[in-house]
Specification:
- By secondary structure, this protein is an alpha/beta fold.
- The chain folds into 2 domains: 112 residues, Rossmann fold; 177 residues, Dihydrodipicolinate Reductase, domain 2, CATH 3.30.360.10.
- Helix content is 38%, strand content 21%.
- It contains 12 helices and 13 strands.
- The strands form 2 sheets. It has a 7-stranded mixed β-sheet with strand order 12-11-7-10-9-8-13. The protein has a 6-stranded parallel β-sheet with strand order 3-2-1-4-5-6, with helices on both faces.
- Strand 11 and strand 12 form a beta hairpin.
- It starts with a strand and ends with a helix.
Length: 334
């Protein structure tokens, strides 16, 4: 199997390593708007660089496409892959805006080409355990969910200026995981934000601390917290409380927490500092799932339609933060 990868930046290098190591991948071809960066990534993982992105779309050049380019390039590349009958893996988001996401969804729905959007928490061992627990009724009736996503240190100012904001860029992972685990839909969001750090967040119209209360379609209440500055370490956790028990994702020896209780020494491990050390196995598992989908002709484990629903929750959260009131997801649905 020959896989083409577009985008050789930080996340592109990570995906390139996962693709190159995946079973059934005989050759990886790497393209980037910067040919030197493509060559450097190809050398790093033992792949082949191509001179132009369009070289990947020559007939019979590749069997599938992985997109890890900058977000504005995603819609055009997804459509081009679909037009060339190439199964597509695309790092989230599908597109910079809801309207563009809907356009991509329409194009994909008119084809029979599978498109897998990269929400890696669906492939994380802890989140998969929570998914099974809810599906099998282990927790009883789910009454409460709490979610936390915090960076130890913020992304660069250049990224924040084009990220779309903390709810669209960061918490969209929480929203997708929430829908996937609970198999319910968010109907209303009341979101808040604050700036406690660098000026470039407020200058970009963004915030570096976030909180929200979400109401699901079965009246389950969900609380959410996030931060771009979390001195204790990189922190992604989800707590699910039901009538039969409570289950926590991300509460391991590396959780960036310390107990104030006498004699308590858990967690004893060193906190993680960034997303790759926390989610590397999940990134590798989602690429392996994509390769199996291409090989076996299966269906996408995370569709463009799934991604749209998560983005709509993020859009409602951002509207709520700016308007200072609860916003129903139906208000932002096109």
């Amino acid at each position: 199997m020959r896989i083409g990868l577009v985008g050789a930046g930080r996340i592109g290098q990570s995906h390139a390593a996962a693709v190159a190591a995946a079973p059934d991948v005989d050759e990886l071809l790497v393209a980037d708007s910067d040919p030197e960066r493509a060559s450097a990534t190809a050398r790093l993982v033992g792949a082949q660089a191509v001179g132009e992105v369009d070289d990947l779309f020559v007939p019979d050049a590749i069997d599938a496409l992985v997109i890890a380019a900058a977000t504005p390039a995603h819609p055009g590349l997804i459509r081009k892959g679909v037009d060339h009958k190439l199964p597509v893996f695309c790092e989230k988001p599908v597109a910079p805006t809801v309207a563009e996401t809907v356009e991509v969804l329409d194009a994909v729905d008119r084809s029979d080409v599978p498109v897998h959007i990269g929400f890696k928490r669906r492939f994380d061992a802890g989140f998969r355990r929570a998914h099974r627990a809810v599906r099998e009724g282990e927790l009883g009736d789910l009454h409460r969910v709490h979610m936390v996503t915090c960076d130890m240190a913020p992304p660069p100012a250049s990224f924040i200026a084009t990220s779309g904001g903390i709810f669209r860029d960061c918490h969209v992972h929480d929203f997708d995981a929430l829908r996937w685990i609970t198999r319910r839909e968010v109907v209303e969001v009341h979101a808040f934000g604050a700036n406690r750090g660098a000026d470039h967040f407020s200058e970009a119209g963004d915030v570096d601390n976030s909180a929200a209360v979400l109401r699901m379609d079965d009246d389950t209440l969900v609380t959410l917290q996030g931060a771009r500055y979390n001195g204790g370490g990189y922190d992604v956790r989800t707590e699910l409380a039901g009538t039969r028990g409570t289950l926590a994702v991300g509460l391991d020896a590396h959780a960036p927490l310390r107990s104030a209780e006498p004699g308590a020494d858990f967690p004893a491990g060193e906190p993680r500092e960034e997303f790759w050390s926390r989610f590397r196995p999940a990134y590798e598992a989602e690429i392996a799932a994509f390769v199996r989908m291409v090989r076996d002709g299966g269906t996408s484990p995370c569709t463009v339609a799934d991604a749209l629903e998560a983005v709509l929750v993020a859009e409602a959260a951002e509207h709520s933060r700016r308007l200072g009131r609860p916003v129903r997801v139906s208000e932002v649905r096109p």
